[in-house]
Design goal:
about 280 residues, about 45% helix, 434 Repressor (Amino-terminal Domain), alpha+beta, about 10% strand, Beta-Lactamase, five-stranded antiparallel β-sheet
Length: about 280
């Protein structure tokens, strides 16, 4: 059963505890609100200000599990706080497994500060959960992807347009990389895992079976990632990775050597945005 008074009080407390800088927002000169404004939180949670305000006042509808998940991420809640929020809303908290798409507040805080850098948070099977604006401009809008196609490894073997974003001379090695990584995850997570599901779906794919049957494991990604962007052309980037071991999520941060041609192209992408990128 929903605890409307408790839910409203908890939401208000968490909102007032957050500062704009905590969630990647700019602090205006005329800010009188303690913490974030309701409309700012509503925007972070992808809902209307009226809907969120009614939840805080204890007069709103019974929020769905999907809505509570969105609120928990928008407020940058830790897992314990997320579980408490679910219980206040009358729902059973989601299991804490490696399949969870709940991003830790620590990773979110780092991502929020990378406003001028291509970066993304991905799951262990390559589903992109969050992107910076420049990450979206470089790699496409991950929110438009659904089903198995959310995984870069699955898309690599089933969508020919994905390979067009990488130099031809590197595509065979990338095929081996994705198949190798999936094989290791199947052994680690076992039957019924997301990795096992993706591997089963790909068994009828000739390109996948060719590299899968080599039994390769431990293939490492290249030190420099090379992308063929449809507008700015080839971009050579280093990729730094930060791992959240509890959720098996990775924060990937792409950087170019200052003064290089790729660095200048990233600056251009900050201007033109993602207008030419498809999902």
């Amino acid at each position: 059963m929903i605890d409307r008074e408790g839910l409203g009080s908890f939401l208000r407390h968490r909102r007032e505890a957050l500062q704009p800088e905590d969630v990647g927002l700019m602090r205006g000169q005329r800010r009188r609100t303690s913490g974030l404004r309701r409309e700012e939180v509503a925007g972070l949670c992808h809902m209307s200000t009226d809907y969120y305000a009614r939840l805080e006042r204890g007069t709103g509808p019974h929020p769905s599990e999907q809505m509570i998940t969105s609120i928990a991420q928008g407020l940058h809640l830790a897992l314990g706080e997320r579980d408490h929020l679910f219980r206040l809303a009358g729902h059973t908290p989601p299991s804490r497994s490696v399949r969870s798409e709940f991003v830790s507040p620590g990773l979110l805080r780092i991502l929020d500060r990378l406003t001028d850098t291509p970066a993304e948070i991905i799951t262990e099977v390559g589903d992109t959960l969050r992107q910076t604006p420049l990450g979206l401009a470089l790699l496409g809008d991950a929110s438009l992807r659904t089903g198995p196609g959310r995984s870069i490894g699955y898309r690599w073997f089933t969508d020919p347009t994905v390979r067009e974003a990488y130099p031809p001379e590197e595509r065979d090695q990338l095929s081996l990389l994705y198949a190798s990584g999936l094989r290791q995850l199947v052994a680690l997570r076992g039957p019924g895992s997301r990795a096992a599901e993706l591997a089963a779906l790909l068994q009828d794919n000739e390109d996948f079976r060719r590299v899968w049957d080599t039994q390769e494991v431990g293939v490492q990604p290249p030190e420099v990632k090379r992308f063929l962007h449809p507008t700015v052309g080839r971009v050579d980037l280093n990729c730094q990775t930060l791992l959240d071991p509890d959720q098996s999520h990775r924060l990937l941060v792409y950087t170019a050597v200052p003064g290089s041609d790729s660095y200048e192209k990233l600056q251009l992408l900050t201007v033109i945005g993602a207008q030419t990128i498809s999902p």
